[in-house]
Amino acid sequence: MRSMYQSGAGPFGYRLTPWVKRLIIANTVIFIIMLSVPVSGNWMVDNLGFRASQILTKPWTVITYMFVHAGFFHVFFNMLMLFFFGPPLEERWGGKEFIKYYAICGIGGAVLTLIFEIGSIGADVPVVGASGAIYGVMLAYALNWPDTLIWIYAIFPIKAKYLVLILGAISFFSAFAGSSDGIAHFAHLGGLVVGYAYLKQGRRVETRLAGLKKRLQRRKLSVIPGGAKGEGSRRQKGRSPSEDEEIRLNEVVNALLDKIAASPDGLNSLTPEERRFLDDYSRRRQASHEVRH
To answer: How large a percentage of the chain has pLDDT more than 90?
Structure first.
């Protein structure tokens, strides 16, 4: 599968980003070890592969299963998709957000498998591979660049959004039809579902912050004294304590918004306390706005 990106991006238009490179190296090295030392392959599948029936005794496998693959083409196509779709996302989001999203989608694949396989005969079948995380990455790419053409086998062009829809539909029907093709369809579906939920929640937060920043900018123009120094001083003397507090809050919020804008990690550059402060302030401002109208 060969991908052609918008705005000149693509395998020859962007650098291989740090986390994508680390993930490809880690998965490749582990696969080579599995091939070189046959006994290690069985050990890795038994101890690093995810089994729904062993979630309590081997909880770490919700993460480690992503680094174990069942064969050459399994690891090759997963890493190829990561190579094509991962770097544009990491460049746009930053490394910290990208690897967090990758891990969340992979864990989501294990969780959905657990939900639907626990108690069934499939609960004892090991699930391996990074496909859940890769499906999440493909989804994020399609949401950011939906009309980019993806060339399947360098022959058949299809837009990214349609490719992800088709793959999602295949995973859905195969998973619930009880397909016995040996593919972990619930893991694929879990990466898509959890990735979509995570991205939608993140967009709601970004939309709320953008609206907050606009309201603050409008209020800043009307509250912060302007004109000559004497005029500003006279206005400050006539301010009430509540107006002073409002100005101080505005200054804190503006500083936090500037911090978000200046950091490549965006919203993730804030501490938990700072995020709670912004969230609470946004709710208060929204409630106040609704009361006035």
So the answer is: 44
Mean pLDDT over each residue of the chain, to the nearest integer: 80
Q: Which residue has the higher pLDDT, 15 or 192?
A: 192
- State in Å, rounded, how far the first CA of the chain is from the last one: 54
Q: What are phi and psi of 119, to 5 degrees?
A: 85, -10
CB 100 within 8 A of CB 202: no
Q: How many CB atoms lie within 10 A of CB 279?
A: 14
- Where residue 147 falls (left for φ over 0; alpha for ψ -120 to 50; beta otherwise) is alpha
pLDDT digits 0-9 by tens, 186-214: 999 999 999 999 998 876 666 666 666 66
pTM of the shown model? 0.68
State the pLDDT confidence band at 8, using cuts at 50, 70 and 90: very low
In SS3 terms, the chain reads as: CEECCHHHCCCCCCCCCHHHHHHHHHHHHHHHHHHHCHHHHHHHHHHHCECHHHCCCCCCHHHHHHHCCCCHHHHHHHHHHHHHHHHHHHHHHCHHHHHHHHHHHHHHHHHHHHHHHCCCHHHHCCECCCHHHHHHHHHHHHHHCCCCEEEECCCEEEEHHHHHHHHHHHHHHHHHCCCCCCCCHHHHHHHHHHHHHHHHHHHHHHHHHHHHHHHHHHHHHHHCCCCCHHHHHHHHHCCCHHHHHHHHHHHHHHHHHHHHHHCCCHHHHCCHHHHHHHHHHHHHHHHHHHHHC
Q: Tell which wins on pLDDT, 193 or 269.
A: 193
